[in-house]
Structure formats: C-alpha cells, structure tokens
Sequence to fold (165 residues):
Amino acid sequence: MSEAQAIRTDEVEEVDFVELDTMIDKEFSTDKENLIMILQAIQRHYNYLPKPALTYLSAKIGVPYSKIYEVATFYSTFSLEPRGRNIISICLGTACHVRGAERIRERLHDSLKIADGQTTDDGRYTLESVRCIGCCSLGPVLKINEDMHGRIATDEVEKVLGQYE
Fold:
C-alpha cells in the first residue's frame, strides 16, 4: 500500500447523524430485521461503511456493534474502507478466464498502478476481482459501478476507463 493510500484510508468522512437518522427512520424504521438493507443504504451514500455510522446504527436499532461488524465483514459487497468513486469488478470466473480475463486484469493493474482491493491515489477507481458476475456469455466482463462491459479486449481497457470520472 502506498503512503498516499494509507493517508486516505485514515481520513474519515464526516458522518451526518441527522441525515443518517432521517434515512433510517424514513426508509426502514428501527426494525433490526432491516439491518442488511440499512447497511446497503449507508454504503450507497458513503461508498463504504464508516465506523462512526456503524457505531451510531448499533445504538439506534439496538443491535450490538459486534453483530453489525459480523454482517458487514461476512458479505463481500460491503467495504469498511473508503473506496474509489468507480468500483471496477473484473470477472475471473471460468467462462471469463478462458476468454482472457487474466490479461484484462493485468492490463488494469498496469494502467491503474494498483492491485486487487486497492484504490488509485486520486480516489477515482477501486479494483476488485470477483468469481462470477453472471454474464458468462459476454466474457471477459468488466463491471464498473453498475455498467457491464462485455467481450472486452485488452486494447479497449483504457477507452472504457476514460468513460468514468
């Protein structure tokens, strides 16, 4: 991890507890059964799960912090670390692998100067490898945020990345 990445990871975005209250009360009430959906809403808002928000959520809905942490770390969709504005998921499932996904991943590493699970110094991209996106017939597949880019070739990587600020 570069020094810039370490510094950025230590910076904690301010959590607006009034806004958090409104989000929880309006959309979910304080029903513990909505924990995963509440975590999804918090992550959508901050692009990760800030610790102060989880601590506050624990007190608000009466679920121990340890249980919230357990759920947040069990599901790979959640992140406890700040992430880039654009989340790049490279599919390495069997269908994508046999169609050259590893070469695409290497190109992403070279272009972005980051490894899996890292964020670019400018906070623009976070790269993650996944086992299957579910678009096997389109392999190799890149998912950037909610956009799918199928049958991507190594020489198209930079062009696709250029579409995202």
